């Protein structure tokens, strides 16, 4: 209860439970520590540092050196700190003090502190609880709700924020720079969050927002995260030899700006912050009135400070100010430059000064260095007349040089004019002794002022007088025509010199001298151009007292050529000629002249191209046929168009898609080529000229080789003549030997031997019919019976017959006489060779010759065609004979009717009419009126029809109509045709 | 509104009227202030819209207000906005500035320079509408309480920008809605006053 009386004034009456705990603890302590003798700490006081979050705890504690200290969050009674500490003791007052640093801002919530003395394991009773009231206390009048406010922290640090809500509010979230953070509840109304490893903040700081669910409320704090200052390169110097100007670099960006958080600078404790607040300026300066020799720079901000020092003597740190008020007094070739110094103290200072002169014309920079005590003027030589210049100066201490001072302002001036330089003159002569004196235009640097004119004198050195008044030419004229013939007249054939002078406001230039003498041309070897130009070499000429002149120009320029030249000093033996006017494909003549007081002399000459090209024009090509060869001729390419040294010609033959090189003519003088080995046809030839650069496009000529027409005609005529001659010989021979021929090929048919009782009178033909009803001339046994038949062909209408029989049944090529009356009808009376007519008949048949004609054996209707049985065709002969014999009277029966049908014959069948027996035994039946009903029959007939009705020749055993059998028919046709031809021939040759 | 705005600017006589010019100026200021707000929101990571606490105090809008009252209302609001803005810019520069000037600072400067032009235009219109007895509002006694905490300062600056944004838009709408007859009368009055001042 004593403890209860110790805490009557405690303001922490928030929780009955907590108080009950304290009471129990108090009782326990009083009983435990009643006899220890350790003094209970008295008069505990709490002193918070809100910004640093440090809580300074002090008490009176008797003789103990160690104390147990417990710190609790009052509201939730959560232990924040409980350790044995050794506080510092104020020996005068006996007050113990110990400082605790809180992670959370001290305003976040109330903290309760108790202390007890400790001696080893023995402790005293706990002191009275002292409480630091937080802002979450209901009685707190603080309106700020988020702690800490506006804190400045270094990069990488951690920070804990707490947010105290109003009564009844519910926290939604805490956000640091837009990111929601994790929340810890410290008390009923207080929430905290910790942000680790802070990054540098922006200029206005990073925001911590406390967002309750009530959107109307918004609390927060700003934290600035940055670096302490880190200045660099701190140096002090003097400009006026008295004061000090210190400079340094601001170093890294601290990320802290403004008058409250920005870096402040102090040099030797003088505040130099005001002039260095511009964050865009990386350099800072501070001026001290006197030279102190030692300087200390201190750079401070809320996160720390950094110091730099510098020590130096004044004479080692002199940096002169920029020279002022520059003035120039200029002459033609030089100028005097002077300036003023701001400080009189410079008059005794040894200075070194740098002068930069820039010529306006070519922007060329000239740097010159001068030195001297108190230097304030310099002499600038080697300038050009009539030239604009600008000049500036800067200086440094000559002794213990520290650094150059600033440049002065630019000062401009112009030099005076001067007489021009001697023109560079030369002469160009044409072949007719006319020419011109030429000189190179004077540049601005050579003119030394604006040129007013050129003057040319013709001077006789022997007479030492001018041959004519001076010729004045405007400044834009750089040549004068001359005529050596006329000049020779005036000079009495003495030597003449042209003197050329240029004039400006300052006067005339020294004259250029050119000897007006012609020179004999020399042979010009080729020269090869290199990267450095045309390399020319020659031996030194003792007469070249005033050097050499190398002249070059277009080799094919005919008149008044633009000549270029270069003058070389005496003793020179080589030079490389290069010119901006050189063009590829142009041949240049380069000439070396010696220069002496008497005359000019051509020493050497060369020819060359800077770059050879292919010829620019094609050849003029012509082609002609010469016998079996082709002659190609072309004309020379003009020199101007060659564009290189011509090396030869390539001759190509193009045949369709092929382009073949025929010949390489390596002699450029050759202007023709003969192409051989070409026969009849059209050929294209292309001739290309080539230089070292290659071929030109070439010219193509086309040649058509004509065949030998005359010879061909001659050959044809000869052949025809020979054939005609041969035919004539054969004809003649045949004529002469016609008897033999007739005998060999057409022997006379022996007359039939008639018996003596053969009636001589002409009576009705009563020839006893042969046993066969048809004439069957058989010479060869293979002949089938179909040949033995006689087929009557209508006489009047061949077409009809043809149609009736079939197209192929009649040999229409044969003459009618051969087809029908082709027999040689002997007019003589028939004389039977055998007494028996029957025998005669048989004999006649066996002889295969008969004089029987069939002139009357026909009808006006369709031909009667006797169709043989094909099967029986091969068996025809003998059975025929047999049947004819069996039938007996097989004589001639012109109107023979069809025989009566037999048992083995079917009348209804067409075959019945084709019975071999009927054919053979029926004899000739030309007027048969049978019609073939069936097309089959007709076809079958057609197959045999060609043989039917074909008469046989009286001289041949062959049928005159083709056989139905194709192969044999063809053969027979051929033999028949041959026989017919021969017959005709013989007939025609018969006398 | 846009159509009416167009008609106001390109009237039948082909010339812009004073209200149309003022409305165009208010539109422009509104656009610039919207951009400034957006820049500020991005700069400060204000993902949530902060509380809309009104800083400008004027009579509430009413259909009973005549043209002169409407002009007076927007003119008064813009005057308050100007005072708030000047204070906000100065305080922000003092507490949070000192660094390099960027897009935000340039836009802030632009808005600060254009707002007086709009105030001048509305003041002229108000004078024209009221005739010779001009009773232009004054902000002489207006007290501006600037928060002490830096976050509160930022929130306050943001609210000031929102006020400028709101009142520039309101001004544009009001100026576009002004009856043309009143405007013409106002214009005649303005010309008469100008003539009188010229005679003097």
TrEMBL record, chain A:
Signal peptide: 1-34
Similarity-based family: Belongs to the type I cytokine receptor family. Type 2 subfamily.
GO cellular component annotations of the record: plasma membrane
Gene3D superfamilies associated with the record: Immunoglobulins
Native organism: Pundamilia nyererei
Protein name per the record: Leukemia inhibitory factor receptor-like
Transmembrane segments: 711-735
UniProt KW keywords: Glycoprotein, Membrane, Receptor, Repeat, Signal, Transmembrane, Transmembrane helix
Pfam families linked: LIF-R_Ig-like, LIFR_D2, LIFR_D4
Biased composition (Polar residues): 868-883
Localization terms from the record: Membrane
Protein's UniProt keywords contain Nucleotide-binding: no
Annotated spans, Disordered: 868-955
Automatic annotation (TrEMBL), chain B:
Matches recorded under Gene3D superfamilies: 1.20.1250.10
Top-rank taxon: Eukaryota
GO MF annotation: an example: ciliary neurotrophic factor receptor binding
GO BP of this protein: ciliary neurotrophic factor-mediated signaling pathway; negative regulation of neuron apoptotic process
Coiled-coil ranges per UniProt: none
PANTHER family to which the protein is assigned, alphabetical: CILIARY NEUROTROPHIC FACTOR
Protein name, entry field: Uncharacterized LOC102208630
Encoding gene, per UniProt annotation: LOC102208630
């Amino acid at each position: 209860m004593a403890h209860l009386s110790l805490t009557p004034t405690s303001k922490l009456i928030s929780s009955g439970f907590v108080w009950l705990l304290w009471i129990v603890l108090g009782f326990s302590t009083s009983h435990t520590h009643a006899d220890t003798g350790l003094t209970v700490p008295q008069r505990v006081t709490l002193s918070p540092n809100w910004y640093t979050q440090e809580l300074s705890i002090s008490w009176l504690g008797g003789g103990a050196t160690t104390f147990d200290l417990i710190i609790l969050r009052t509201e939730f009674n959560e232990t924040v700190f409980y350790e044995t500490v050794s506080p510092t003791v104020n020996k005068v007052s006996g007050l113990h003090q110990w400082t605790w640093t809180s992670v959370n801002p001290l305003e976040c919530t109330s903290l309760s502190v108790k202390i007890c003395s400790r001696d080893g394991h023995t402790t005293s009773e706990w002191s009275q609880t002292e409480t630091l009231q937080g802002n979450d206390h209901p009685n707190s009048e603080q309106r700020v709700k988020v702690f800490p406010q506006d804190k400045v922290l270094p990069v990488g640090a951690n920070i804990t924020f707490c947010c105290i809500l109003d009564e009844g509010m519910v926290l939604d979230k805490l956000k640091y720079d837009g990111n929601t953070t994790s929340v810890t509840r410290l008390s009923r109304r207080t929430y905290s969050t910790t942000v680790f490893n802070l990054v540098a903040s922006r200029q206005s700081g990073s925001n911590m927002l406390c967002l309750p669910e009530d959107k109307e409320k918004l609390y927060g704090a700003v934290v600035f995260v940055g670096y302490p200052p880190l200045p660099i390169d701190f140096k002090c110097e003097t400009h006026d030899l008295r004061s000090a100007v210190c400079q340094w670099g601001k170093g890294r960006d601290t990320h802290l700006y403004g008058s409250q958080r920005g870096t402040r600078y102090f040099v030797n404790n003088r505040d130099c912050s005001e002039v260095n607040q511009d964050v865009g300026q990386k350099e800072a300066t501070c001026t001290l009135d006197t030279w102190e020799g030692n300087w200390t720079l201190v750079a401070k901000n809320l996160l720390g400070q950094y110091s730099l020092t510098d020590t130096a003597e004044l004479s080692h740190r002199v940096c002169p100010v920029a020279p002022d008020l520059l003035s120039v007094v200029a002459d033609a070739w030089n100028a005097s430059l002077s300036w003023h110094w701001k400080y009189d103290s410079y008059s005794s200072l040894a200075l070194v000064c740098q002068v930069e002169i820039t010529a306006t014309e070519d922007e060329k920079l000239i740097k010159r260095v001068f030195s001297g005590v108190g230097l304030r003027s310099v002499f600038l030589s080697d300038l050009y007349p009539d030239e604009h210049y600008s000049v500036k100066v800067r200086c440094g201490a000559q002794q213990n040089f520290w650094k150059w001072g600033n440049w002065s302002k630019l000062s401009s001036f112009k030099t005076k004019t001067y007489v021009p330089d001697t023109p560079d003159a030369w002469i160009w002569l044409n072949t007719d002794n006319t020419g011109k004196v030429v000189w190179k235009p004077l540049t601005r640097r050579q003119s030394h002022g604006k040129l007013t004119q050129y003057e040319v004198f013709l001077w006789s050195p022997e007479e030492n007088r001018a041959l004519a008044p001076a010729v004045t030419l405007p400044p834009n004229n750089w040549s004068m025509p001359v005529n050596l013939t006329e000049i020779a007249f005036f000079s009495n054939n003495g030597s003449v010199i042209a003197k050329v002078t240029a004039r400006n406001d300052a006067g005339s230039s020294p004259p250029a001298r050119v000897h007006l003498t012609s020179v004999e041309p020399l042979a010009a070897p080729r020269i090869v151009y290199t990267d450095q130009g045309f390399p020319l070499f020659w031996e030194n000429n003792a007469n070249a007292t005033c050097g050499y002149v190398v002249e070059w120009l277009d080799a094919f320029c005919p008149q008044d050529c633009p000549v270029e030249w270069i003058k070389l000093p005496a003793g020179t033996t080589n030079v490389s000629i290069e010119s901006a006017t050189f063009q590829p494909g142009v041949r240049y003549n380069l000439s070396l002249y010696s220069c002496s007081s008497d005359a000019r002399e051509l020493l050497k000459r060369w020819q060359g191209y800077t770059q050879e090209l292919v010829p620019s024009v094609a050849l003029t090509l012509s082609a002609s046929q010469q016998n079996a060869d082709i002659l190609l001729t072309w004309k020379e390419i003009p020199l101007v168009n060659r564009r290189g040294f011509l090396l030869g010609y390539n001759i190509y033959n193009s045949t369709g898609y092929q382009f073949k090189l025929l010949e390489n003519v390596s002699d450029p003088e050759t202007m023709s080529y003969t192409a051989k080995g070409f026969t009849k046809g059209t050929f294209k030839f292309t001739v290309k000229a080539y230089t070292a650069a290659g071929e030109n496009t070439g010219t193509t000529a086309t040649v058509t080789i004509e065949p030998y027409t005359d010879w061909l005609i001659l050959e044809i005529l000869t052949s025809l003549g020979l054939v005609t001659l041969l035919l004539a010989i054969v004809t003649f021979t045949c004529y002469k030997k016609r008897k033999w021929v007739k005998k060999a090929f057409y022997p006379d048919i022996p007359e039939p031997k008639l018996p003596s009782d053969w009636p001589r009178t002409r009576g009705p033909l009563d020839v006893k019919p042969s046993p066969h009803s048809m004439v069957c001339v058989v010479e060869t046994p293979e002949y089938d019976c179909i040949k033995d038949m006689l087929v009557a062909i209508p006489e009047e209408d061949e077409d009809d017959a043809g149609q009736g029989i079939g197209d192929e049944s009649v040999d229409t090529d044969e003459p009618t006489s051969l087809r029908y009356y082709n027999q040689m009808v002997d007019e003589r009376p028939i004389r039977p060779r055998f007494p028996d007519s029957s025998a005669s008949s048989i004999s006649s048949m066996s002889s295969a010759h008969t004089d029987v004609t069939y002139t009357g054996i026909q009808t006006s209707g369709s031909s009667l065609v006797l169709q043989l049985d094909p099967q029986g065709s091969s068996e025809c002969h003998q059975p025929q004979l047999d049947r004819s014999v069996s039938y007996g009277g097989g004589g001639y029966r012109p109107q023979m009717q069809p025989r009566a049908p037999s048992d083995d014959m079917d009348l209804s069948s067409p075959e019945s009419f084709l019975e071999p027996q009927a054919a053979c035994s029926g004899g000739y039946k030309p007027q048969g009126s049978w019609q073939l009903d069936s097309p089959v029959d007709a076809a079958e007939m057609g197959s045999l029809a060609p043989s039917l009705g074909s008469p046989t020749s009286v001289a041949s055993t062959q049928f005159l109509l083709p056989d139905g059998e194709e192969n044999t028919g063809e053969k027979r046709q051929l033999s028949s045709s041959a026989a017919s031809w021969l017959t005709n021939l013989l007939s025609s040759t018969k006398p | 509104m846009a159509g009416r705005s167009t008609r106001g600017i390109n009237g039948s006589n082909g010339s812009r009227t004073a209200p149309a010019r003022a409305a165009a100026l208010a539109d422009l200021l509104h656009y610039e202030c919207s951009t400034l707000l957006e820049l500020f929101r991005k700069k400060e990571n204000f993902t949530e819209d902060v509380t809309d606490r009104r800083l400008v105090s004027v009579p509430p809008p009413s259909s009973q207000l005549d043209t002169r009252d409407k002009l007076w209302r927007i003119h008064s609001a813009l005057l308050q906005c100007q005072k708030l803005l000047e204070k906000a810019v100065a305080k922000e520069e003092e507490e949070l500035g000192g660094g390099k000037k960027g897009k935000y600072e340039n836009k802030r400067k632009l808005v600060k320079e254009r707002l007086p032009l709009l105030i001048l235009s509305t003041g002229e219109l108000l004078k024209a509408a009221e005739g010779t007895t001009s009773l232009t509002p004054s902000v002489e006694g207006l007290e501006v309480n600037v928060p002490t905490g830096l976050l509160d300062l930022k929130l306050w600056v943001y609210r000031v920008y929102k006020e400028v944004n709101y009142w520039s838009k309101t001004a544009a709408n009001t100026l576009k809605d002004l009856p043309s007859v009143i405007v013409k009368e106002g214009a005649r009055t303005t010309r008469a006053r100008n003539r009188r001042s010229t005679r003097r």
